[in-house]
Amino acid sequence: MTTNDLTPTPGQTIGPFFGYFNAAENVHLPFENGQHLVPVSDDRAIQLTGTVYDGAGEPIPDAMLEIWQADEHGNIPNQDGSLIRDPFAFTGWGRATTDNVGTYRFTTVEPGRTEDGKPPFIHIVVFARGILNKLHTRAYIPDADGLENDPTIVALGDRAETVIAKRDGKRLILDIHIQGDNETVFFQFPGMTYPKP
């Protein structure tokens, strides 16, 4: 007699499923200090923060975000060790979850420009319940040289404000709206596919 296993798989249930742990390899998802790309005490440290909202304008308390960025000189790190927080090695990658009011926080450095004439930005990847594929957006550095002439920013028109962070001292603030009137601009890259509505 055959028994049918009707246990829902992740694609059929509401996630996210971020509590992964592998004791043999000491891998956690999320992992300890993943939100600190540099120590808080580092003189270069800034905070990238904001709130993630759903389509109804409600904060999402269980989203996970990753950031990828250049260092303060515009160098893109390529060394191994993102899961190891070595204060002497900037990996340019971090992972954080939102708190119970939907706020995320990263301690990092303000990135430098990677190309002449291109404004610096921090690449953000959003994972959340109800999203079958991760979402990609950016936090452009406000008041950066070249921002007003950047082809991407120009093409976005009025919607560019959804990807330009606001500065508050040593904090960069970018709220992320998954849907709705204030929806953040999300980017599609070659090879990415999304289900049709």
Automatic annotation (TrEMBL):
Intradiol ring-cleavage dioxygenases domain: residues covered: 45-159
UniProt keyword Oxidoreductase present: yes
InterPro entries in the record: Intradiol_dOase_C (IPR000627), Intradiol_dOase_core (IPR015889), Intradiol_RC_Dioxygenase (IPR050770), Protocat_dOase_a (IPR012786)
Recorded GO MF terms: ferric iron binding; protocatechuate 3,4-dioxygenase activity
UniProtKB keywords: Dioxygenase, Oxidoreductase
Listed NCBIfam families: protocat_alph
Family, as annotated: Belongs to the intradiol ring-cleavage dioxygenase family.
Name used for this protein in its record: Protocatechuate 3,4-dioxygenase subunit alpha
UniProt organism field: Enteractinococcus helveticum
